[in-house]
Automatic annotation (TrEMBL):
This is Putative integral membrane transport protein. The chain crosses the membrane at residues 31-51, 71-91, 103-122, 128-151, 158-178, 190-211, 255-279, 291-313, 320-337, 349-369, 381-402, 414-432. The keyword tRNA processing does not apply. Keywords: Membrane, Transmembrane, Transmembrane helix.
Amino acid sequence: MHQNGSIYLSVDLVQPERANLKIRSAKKKQLHYAWVVASVTFLILLVTAGVRATPGVLIVPLESEFGWTSASISTAIAINLALYGLIGPFAASLMERLGLRRITLMALSLLAIAVGLTTLMTRQWQLILLWGICVGSGTGFTATVLSAVVMNRWFEKNLGVVLGALTAAGATGQLLFLPLMARVVERSGWRLMALGVSGAAIIVFLIVLWLMRDNPSDVGLVPYGATDKPDADHSAEPMLRPLAALRLASRSSAFWVLAGSFFVCGASTNGLIGTHLIAACHDYGIPEVRAAGLLAVMGIFDIFGTTASGWLSDRMPSRYLLLAYYCLRGLSLIYLPHTLANGHSGLNWFAIFYGLDWVATVPPTVRLVTDCFGRVNTGVIFGWVAAAHQLGAALAAVGAGLIRTRAGDYHDAFWIAGGFCFLTGISFLFAARSLRGRIDPSISSAQPVTT
């Protein structure tokens, strides 16, 4: 009996262990739901970025139909860009409290309604209300902050690659759809194009309703790459509220280095090239569809550039990456007026190069935010850094429009932006000490803690 009992006992102990091994092996073979959420997020960012970029196609048609100036149309675009950035920190906080699925659905509903109503506008204040305030607010909730929140909730490894791909979606969407929108405007008018954009937002709404989930625990999982048990200390640490996060971050020189550099990034991408390149090409007799095609090329190469930047940010010091990105972007902008004046082949090379560098700055910037402020607060503090990005974009959108209205071209706008980009890149040579400090939110005095 003792011998047989021992045999039975050993079988009882071994069988559950074999079952657990089989379960773990089956889980490894299954696609982790984090990749489904990442794919849905990629689609959200792709389409909503296309919505946000639509005014770039509307400048010339609205000038022709209503007689509005570039400066007046750029004002609505500037409001759009500013709200897109300023809402980001509050979006991160609301996603924490109400769930990213619910917030995303509300944002997509607002976008679909607002863009649809623009087909009825006849006054300039309606452009400001719909494209400036409503679309700016809706896209603000589906901004780059959404990428950071999804990355930190659903992933424990491959963070740089995931963030790079999601960031590329946000930038690529605003460039990739422009040729199609420009062609629809050319053949059928801008109102039909606006209805198509509204319909795209509705389709994404339905996909989010079907597939998006807030947390891995909602589907009985832990984050991709995590151990079987979640990190209790990490999950117990609360995210700072937006204004508290801003007060905390503003005491760190690292925040001002990152926010200042991102201000220049926004000015040189969304605000200047994303908004005004089509109009700048129009001034040189380049057709609108052809100019939008250049932006599409940027969008395609942005996917490779930003994803590669995410890969590099997992392996190289982030400040050296930012040094290279900003300096190369500055040189390309300084040379752009010459490129515009000397034919199409040079513009193709500009589009490829600028696409690779379009938002390659995001992965290393997010990495530095995480290093300086911790993973829990990455979303809300990066939201404030992204707000600086969009404030820079808003200033550049208005400033470039004023320059074109008064000078008749964009030459000065390109040179000014290029100079600031180059100086921003050089500044990272001297920012090592500032980026080594870390703020600990558990310390009431909020003094920097050396890492």
